[in-house]
Amino acid sequence: MEITVGTARENSVVRRKVRTRAAAVLLAGAVLVGASVGFSSGNARAAATPSPAPPSPKPSAPGSPNDAHQNGSWWVQPAPTPGSTAAARQYFILEGRPGTTLQDGLAVSNYTDHPITYYVYGADGYNTPRDGQFALRDHGYAMIGVGSWVRTAFPTITVPARTSTVVPISIAIPANASPGDHVGGVSGMDTAVESVQQQGNVQVGIKRVVAARLYVHVDGPAVGGLTVTQLKVTGSASFPAYVSDSDGTVTATVTNSGNLLESPKAHLRATGIFGTLIDRTVQLPQILPGQSIDFSQAWKNMPPFEIGTLHLDVTDDTASPPVTSSEALSLTLIPWLTLLVAALVVLALLVGLLFWRRRRNPPPVRPRVRRERPQRHERPETTKAAAP
């Protein structure tokens, strides 16, 4: 089971630039796909190492859930920094050197009228294959990224009704951690099974999860990179050509080949002998370092015949300097079915014309010459008389 996060609108860029340690904020909504993960918006925040969280859970009256990652019944968010008057943090945005440990806390608030027991754990982030959106691995998945760096003081915690509790957490950056952005989340999952779904012969228990995103930037060389591969056009010309519309699809794979978050835009352009065929720009989902997403754009009213070039330029102009990658494809659109049918029709006309001309102007008939067989002349037989 995967935890998928659907965005309410386009994500902002969250990145650390070379020699700059400012971070922007991401925006997300809650989606339940076997489990739900809630996120909400916040303001930009510079990276900072937070003060240590309280050594043990301390229940208190829950605050407003409007700015928390919540599902309506309970919510989680980074614990407020003691003594700080700044607005509540919506995400963990941290930075450190390899081999260091960062201390923080996760605030868990229960708005129901009964106690709830939660698993608290770190999860790796990734881009979903289907639409490239941000998602978190489920509880029990073998974490190999930033999710494996998270240590919680209490693997499970019970929060009384209508109270909030802070769970101390630490993020232990490995000594061999690669530099750049590492993205995941700190999740709280209700241990109770919310519902049971029947999938074939197997019953699957559904548990609800809420998480706060975790951004850890590891010091070192920061390298932005994007790569476009496998650009192609699929689809076939309508039949007959130029009578009905043709539809096609342009697809490609966009990979974040650097170690920073990228929030690119894709500019798709096709030109041919009849001018510009398509020219559009679309915002792509934010791509995590090392992740790939599938680019797909429908091409309505694709011309049945054209020879030209298809260009796909992917650029993250929020980076400094901007990161870009391009791919081009020779475009040859030929309505083969229409041409085949047309060729068969022409061939049939030629054959019909040939027969028609033969019937109208038949070839002259040659007179048949009768050849008589020569007569055989028989010689009279000579009879010899018998000797007396």
TrEMBL record:
Residues 43-82, 364-388 are annotated as: Disordered. It comes from Catenulispora acidiphila (strain DSM 44928 / JCM 14897 / NBRC 102108 / NRRL B-24433 / ID139908). Residues 51-62 have a biased composition (Pro residues). Residues 364-374 have a biased composition (Basic residues). It comes from the Bacteria. The lineage of its organism: Bacteria, Bacillati, Actinomycetota, Actinomycetes, Catenulisporales. The keyword Membrane applies. This is DUF916 domain-containing protein. The chain crosses the membrane at residues 333-356. Keywords: Membrane, Transmembrane, Transmembrane helix.
